[in-house]
Every structure is written in C-alpha cells, then in structure tokens.
Amino acid sequence: MMTGKRLIISALLLALVQIGFLGWIIAGRAAILRDGKQVLLKVEPIDPRDLLRGDYIFLGYEISRIPVKLIANIPADKLVSDDTSIVVRLKKGADGYWQPTTAWFGAAPAPAAADEADIVGHINDGWGLREEGASITPDYGIERFYLPEGEGMAIQSDMRVRPFAVRVAIAGDGTPQIKALMDGDKTLFEEPLY
Question: Distance between CA 166 and CA 40 in Å, rounded?
Fold first, then answer.
C-alpha cells in the first residue's frame, strides 16, 4: 500500500511526463513552422464548418492532383496504387507558386536541390496507375485550416471570387505545416508558434 508521500510523488512524476510529452509535440510543430522551407501553394475552398471545432476551410491544392505520369518509380506490372506514402518534389514557378515536377512512391532517390522542396503525402490503395491521363490525390495533412469563430463563411465566399494561397513550412523529412492563409500578398491568419 502506498503512503501519502509516495502517492504525491508518483502523481507529480506522472504529471511531469505528460507535460513533457505535450511540450515535445508542440516544440516539434513550432520547429517546422520556424525552420521549415517555406512554399506558397494556390488553394481551392470546399467547406467552412466543423460543428465540433468551429470554422475551418477545407483546402484543395493544385498539388492535390498529381498526374500519374509524374510518378517516377511505378513498377511495370503495377496497375493500382497501394496504401503508401508519396514524396512530391516541388519547384517554384514564375508566378511564385510551387508546382510538382516529379513524385515517388515511398521515398525520393536523392535529396531535393536548394531551389526545390519535397513534401510527403499519403495515397490510399486503389488509384488506377495505367489509364491515359490518370491522376492520384495525395493527402498531405494540411487540408484543413481553422479560423477564428465567424470568419469561415466570409472567407469561403471570397475564395470563390479571388485567388487565395497558403504559406506552408516543410520540415527536412517532408512533413508540411500550414504557416499562414493569404489573400494575394496579404496575410489573413498566421499559425502561432506556441
């Protein structure tokens, strides 16, 4: 049986471990936002509400549809995709937005050059890989951007008439994190560094 002193010490240790774990998660996210390579992506709106979490914009990107012809390592006998990761190499276009140049299932064979960035996404199984003009839709984990209460519908309406973009920070391992929602060159909302 635990004495009162041992119980208090155990509870404090458990609390410290939990606080340390949460701090580690937040520090990792803040490090991506602070130190990651920043790219600008053109976005397309879809839906502005989450009943449990408030206003958000579900974003689709031009990099959300990757033509199969850009995937460099499809085995000759593979007809459909597996449930796997995909690395998409991006390069800055003349308009300032980053575009996909090539992609690989699994991992890139070489690191990106200084003027390129690799973003990692996930592909579900079942995407056709042999049809003419086929494309796949990776999930990058940056498809939702949460907004202050009451802002979602107004921004959703504006996105239908004006171009918007997001500034994304990409970590060295390809993990993306939305840094800011932008209307032209104007930053509307920025993610906090915590």
Answer: 6
